[in-house]
Specification:
GO terms for molecular function: RNA binding. Keywords: Repeat, Signal. Residues 1-25 form the signal peptide. PPR repeats lie at residues 5-39. The protein has 2 domains: 6-123, Serine Threonine Protein Phosphatase 5, Tetratricopeptide repeat, CATH 1.25.40; 137-185. It has helices spanning 6-18, 22-31, 37-49, 53-65, 72-85, 88-100, 108-120, 124-133, 140-148, 154-167, 172-182. It contains 11 helices and no strands. The radius of gyration is 19 Å and the shape is elongated. It is mostly helical and 185 residues long.
Length: 185
């Protein structure tokens, strides 16, 4: 069989990982002649997407030990992994590290991941503050994300619902989530 280039190796790795064959993906990764940033990020993303956030985070540290700095795509996978793992401290550290350590400007999507992380961790006021102070204009989806995490805080949920409804009155999501919150009273 002819030698494969890095794109072929990474494509095969993603194919195995996305079809649920993570062990084969790892085996292939170990056989790759050059484990570049793209291959590392593909493996990290695969772990994050199938519900193995701890493995994704461990791989990110291993990637750095092997001399690869995380890029924007890596952080876009790591932040949701922190959220799904409930790892607030690491998620906040990653967001701060993007700029301070790596010179990367966090995207709106990455801020949204941290809003979700704060909400999942029960830090609704901090999540609301982040939505209000992030360097991007909040959209209805940001408030809906917050609203979806405020099921036990009716007053807080109403505030998030109002923001979402003001920004996107035609979207049923905020109305449904607010209804779910108020029926728990």
């Amino acid at each position: 069989m002819p030698d494969r280039d890095p794109i072929s190796w990474t494509t095969l790795l993603l194919l195995f990982a996305q079809t649920g064959h993570l062990e084969l993906a790892h085996s292939l990764f170990k056989q790759m002649p050059a484990q570049d940033l793209i291959a590392w990020t593909a493996l990290i993303t695969s772990h994050a997407r199938i519900g193995r956030p701890g493995s994704a985070l461990a791989l990110s540290w291993a990637m750095q030990i092997h001399g690869h700095a995380p890029d924007d795509a890596t952080f876009t996978s790591l932040l949701p992994a922190c959220s799904h793992a409930g790892d607030l401290r690491t998620g906040i550290c990653w967001l701060r590290s993007m700029d301070a350590d790596w010179g990367l400007t966090p995207s709106k999507e990455q801020y949204g991941c941290v809003v979700d992380l704060l909400g999942r961790s029960g830090h609704l006021a901090a999540a609301e503050e982040l939505v209000a102070t992030m360097p991007y204009t909040p959209e209805a989806l940001d408030w809906i994300c917050l609203l979806s995490r405020s099921d036990s805080a009716v007053g807080f949920g109403r505030g998030a619902a109002k923001q979402a409804m003001d920004l996107s009155p035609e979207s049923p999501a905020s109305y449904i989530l607010l209804s779910n919150i108020t029926t728990k009273i």
